[in-house]
Structure formats: structure tokens, C-alpha cells
Amino acid sequence: MNGHHGAVAMFAAALSFFPPCAAPAAEEVPQRAQACTVCHGPGGNSTDPAVPSLAGQPAQFISMQLFLFRQGDRKDPQMSPIAANLSNADMNELAAYFTRQRPASPSHQSARENAAAGRRLAEQYHCVQCHGPALLGLQHIPRLAGQQFAYLRTQLRGFKAKIRADFDGNMTSVAELLSERDIEILADYLSGLTPARD
Ligand code: HEC
Ligand code: HEC
Questions:
Q1: What pLDDT was estimated at residue 167?
Q2: CA-proximal residue: ligand 1, atom 7 (nearest)
Q3: What is the whole-number distance in angstroms between the Cα of residue 17 and the centre of ligand 2?
Q4: Which of 50, 112, 117, 151 has the fewest C-beta atoms lying within 10 Å of its C-beta?
Q5: How far apart are CA 150 and CA 133, in angstroms?
Q6: What pLDDT score does 24 carry?
Q7: Of 43, 77, 100, which closes a domain?
Q8: Do 117 and 165 sit in the same domain of this protein?
Q9: Residue nearest atom 23 of ligand 1, based on CA coordinates
Q10: Interior CA angle at 103 toward 99 and 108, to 5°?
């Protein structure tokens, strides 16, 4: 985790140095965000199983992930080159746009037995303590409710295998305890949850 302290401190400094831009009108899609929606879907609601939705994600989570991609801590052949070209101000503007977008209802339907088993696992492993009781995320912690099933499963496997960047080490510690079967159940449960705040 060593090098990450420096990265986090720099990130915090970068954020305070570049306050979020004034929010544009909700209907207006900032020029820079249009390039993102090609992969992340209209309004950041992804229809691609391998690509995460960004709609309604906490702004701090979005900008932090972009920062980690730019920094090279988190790596992805598609995202890394995109983040490399973003300034801190761009990241804040993009985060402000996507956090305001309403998450779509999930297209995924959880298996009936996994809905109950998934909730039990989410409580047993304290997912709900960090990601929130309705798994909607907050601050630097992502929304999981209604996220793409395949994407969730890949990320959980990635944390367990220590190949997904994890800036404070919390997810790697949790994922270590999960069996492949637990991951399957959790991804199925989380992906089917309605991500609305009301
Ligand atoms: C060519 C397709 C593509 C484009 C264009 C793209 N992304 Fe991504 N993005 C991805 C993929 C694929 C991932 C998942 C990477 C992984 O599996 O770790 C991702 C992940 C992310 C994440 C992490 C989300 C999470 O839940 O962990 C953020 C934030 C993000 N992208 C923001 C953006 C923004 C902002 C833009 C526009 C500037 C953008 N992306 C453009 C493909 C794309
Ligand atoms: C101690 C707090 C904590 C606990 C407990 C926790 N998480 Fe996380 N989780 C986080 C943080 C922080 C991140 C962002 C990590 C990063 O990208 O550096 C995260 C990220 C994730 C991601 C990646 C999502 C994305 O969009 O990229 C998934 C999936 C996830 N958690 C699932 C779970 C599940 C399932 C559990 C319970 C088994 C759980 N988490 C328990 C804090 C926690």
C-alpha cells in the first residue's frame, strides 16, 4: 500500500486545488462527457456487461477512479489512455455530470434464491456498512445496486486476485474471504437491486 499514500495525498491536494466547476444545466451534456457515453451508455447507464454504469455514482468515487487510472494505479486498456488526457478540472466536471444522472432500472433479474442469500452475504461481510444499507455508495465508495452483473463479478474476482487497484486495501481484505460461489451470488444479488434513492 506504500506508494498509495502519496497518491491519495496528491489526490486530496488536487481536489482542494480544483474545486468542481459550476454545474451546467441538467439537460446539457458536456462536450467531454459525450465521448464517455459511447462506452458507458447514454447518461452513463451502460448496456454493455463489461462496462460499468456511471449514472448516480458518488462524484468523489468517479473522480478518484479517473485519478487512479491516470496515475497508473488502476489499469485498463480502454480507460487508461482516456484518463491520461484528463486534467483535474476535467475529472471534476465529468464527475459532476455523471453523479447527477439518474440510474436506470436494472435489466438484470436476480435468481430468487440469490436475492436472500446475497443479502445475507452482504450483511455477513459488512458490504452494507461501507456501501450503504441500499448499496447506493457514498463519497469514495461506489454504488453497487443495479451495476452490470459481469462487471461486478470481474471486479470482485480482481480484488481477490489482487489485480484490481484498491487504494485503501479494504476491498482486497474483504474479497479474500469470498469463495467463487459467494462472488457469483453477490454479483447476481447486487446487479438486480433497483438503484433509486426514493
Ligand atoms: C472505449 C470505451 C470507454 C470509453 C470511451 C470510456 N470508458 Fe470508462 N470504462 C471503460 C471500461 C471497459 C471500464 C471498466 C474497466 C475495468 O474493468 O476495470 C471503465 C471504467 C470507468 C470508471 C470506473 C467505474 C467503476 O465503477 O469503477 C470510470 C469512473 C470511468 N470509466 C469514467 C469514464 C469517463 C469519465 C469517460 C469519458 C471521459 C470514459 N470512462 C470513457 C470503457 C470506456
Ligand atoms: C471497509 C469498507 C468496505 C467494505 C466492507 C466493502 N467495500 Fe466494496 N468498496 C469499498 C471501497 C472504498 C471501494 C473502492 C475501492 C477502490 O477503487 O480503490 C469499493 C469497491 C467495490 C467494488 C468495485 C465497484 C466498481 O464500480 O468499481 C465492488 C464490486 C465492491 N466494492 C463490492 C463489495 C462487496 C460485495 C462487499 C461485501 C462482500 C464489499 N464491497 C465490502 C469499500 C468497502
A1: 87
A2: 79
A3: 27
A4: 112
A5: 22
A6: 47
A7: 100
A8: yes
A9: 65
A10: 140
State which residues form the domain around 48.
2-100
Tell me the C-alpha distance between 121 and 77, whole Å: 32
Residue 136 near residue 167, CB atoms below 8 Å: no
Residues 92 and 39 in one domain: yes
Q: What is the CATH number of the domain that holds 70?
A: 1.10.760.10
The residue whose CA is least distant from atom 24 of ligand 2 is 142
The pTM for the full model equals 0.90
CA distance 49 to 150: 5
| Position 97 pLDDT exceeds 90 | yes
Tell me which residue has its CA closest to atom 3 in ligand 1: 39
Q: What is the mean pLDDT of residues 18-36?
A: 68
Measure 178 CA to ligand 2 centroid, in angstroms.
13
Same domain for 164 and 185, yes or no, is: yes
Quick check: is 173 in a domain? yes
Mean pLDDT check: name the lowest of 69-73, 90-94, 194-198.
194-198
